[in-house]
Design a protein that fits this description.
Helix content is 43%, strand content 16%. The chain contains 14 helices and 15 strands. A hairpin with a 4-residue loop joins β6 and β7. The protein is globular and about 60 Å long. The two termini are 30 Å apart. Bound molecules: pyridoxal-5'-phosphate. The site of pyridoxal-5'-phosphate (PLP) has 13 residues, from α3.
């Protein structure tokens, strides 16, 4: 049926109708007082979502743009960067740092695992000369559905003295990530995830410590220059022509978020993801992340049952029920499928998705008790 598609991928995520309608208005001039008042509210509301007193810069870019904006304002050629890699997106930090001429060391784990705090402590303790300048890490690894214990890892990095650079692309506005309380130096995110608006904006919040490292950066980025962005935030403006309609969308979405309340948003993500996992197990499928204490509340990775392929599950869900779930990435392609419970997703959406997954698996020949997933989810939700 036309116009019924429901995205259960980890981004882009569904967008509320009021946001879409506001976005559809004529663009406003980016130097107008009207836009400046929108910016003032957006910049203030973003601080609440990032749980920080630091300025939050808004870039016209995707999440990777914010990642590049983070490192390209910090890294000088030859700097030592330690990248904590638990999946594709952790690896992206390492690649960006390498592109800037850094010496990159990776601390990697098997996919499906999180970084072990003891291993990080050991590595940082061994760096007695404090050669490591920056540590990059991912809060929520979208490729695997694992959440790192950022609070603990950042505390270790702080103790060492390096700058912590955290990817919060699929965690901000979904999982609790209090930037100031946890002492994160640089935190990035993207619009098409927990923020409930389409792709095209990215966010970067910068601590005073990180800003002073930027001031020593020999060749900081021009387009993503922190100095230019900091000045603009303080003037309620933007350095260049931004995606104005997306800012209007963000303005509306932030009001919706404020209305729901950040802790309620976090609680909703937790409830939906844990209900989904209960349903998956009840249907007889296996979760990719075995240790549920590190399983993400934004994205759940699932192994297909024996004899049924990931492409068939995804195709049946799309063709017969208009629900889109994501494939695995790279080495995990066709080995797992990933269901997002990220952003503008409610209990009704989840129940519809679980029922549709059951129907798809039934059609594809998986043997299980029909309704068992929906029952498990309802028992969890109610
Ligand atoms: C954890 C994480 N980091 C970074 C990115 C990259 O964001 P983008 O595709 O918006 O550039 C994504 C995208 O899904 C992500 O999930």
């Amino acid at each position: 049926m036309k116009d019924k598609t429901f995205l259960m991928i980890p981004g882009p995520t569904p967008v509320p109708e009021s946001v879409l309608l506001d976005m559809a208005k004529h663009p406003v001039g980016h130097r107008s007082s009207e836009f400046s008042s929108i910016l003032k509210e957006v910049y203030a509301d973003l601080k609440d979502v990032f749980q920080t007193k630091n300025d939050v810069f808004v870039l016209t870019a995707s999440g990777t743009g914010a990642m590049e904006a983070a490192l390209s304002n910090l890294v000088n050629e030859g700097d030592n960067v330690l990248s904590l890699v638990i999946g594709n997106f952790g690896e992206r930090w390492a690649k960006i740092a390498e592109s800037l001429g850094a010496n990159v060391e990776r601390m990697a784990v098997e996919f499906g695992q999180a970084i072990d705090g003891n291993a990080l402590k050991e590595r940082l303790d061994a760096d007695v000369d404090k050669k490591i300048k920056i540590v990059t890490l991912t809060h929520n690894e979208t490729a695997t559905g694992v959440t790192n214990d950022v609070k603990n890892l950042v505390a270790l990095i702080k103790e060492h003295g390096a700058v912590s650079v955290v990817d919060g692309v699929t965690s901000i506005a979904a999982l609790n990530c209090p930037m100031d309380e946890w002492g994160i130096d640089v935190l990035v995110s993207g619009s098409q995830k927990g923020f409930m608006i389409p792709p095209g904006l990215a966010f970067i919040a910068v601590s005073d410590k990180a800003y002073s490292v930027y001031e020593q950066c020999k060749h900081p980025s021009f387009y993503f220059n922190w100095g230019a962005y900091r000045k603009s935030v303080r003037d309620a403006s933007t350095p260049y022509t931004p995606a104005v309609n997306l800012f209007v969308a963000l303005h509306t979405a932030l009001k919706i978020m404020k209305n729901e309340g950040l802790s309620n948003i976090h609680a909703r993500h937790k409830k939906l993801a844990t209900a989904l996992r209960a349903a998956i197990k009840a249907i007889g499928l296996e979760l990719f992340v075995k240790d549920e204490s590190i399983a993400s509340y934004a994205i759940t990775a699932v192994l297909p049952p024996a004899g049924v392929s990931v492409p068939d599950i995804r195709a049946t869900l799309k063709k017969d029920y208009d629900i889109v779930v994501a494939n695995g990435q790279n080495a995990l392609k066709d080995k797992i499928f990933r269901m997002g419970t990220l952003g503008f997703v409610c209990e009704r959406d989840l129940l519809a998705a679980i029922a549709s997954l059951e129907a798809s698996l039934y059609k594809l020949g998986h043997k299980f008790e029909l309704g068992s997933g929906v029952k498990a989810a309802i028992e969890h939700l109610v």
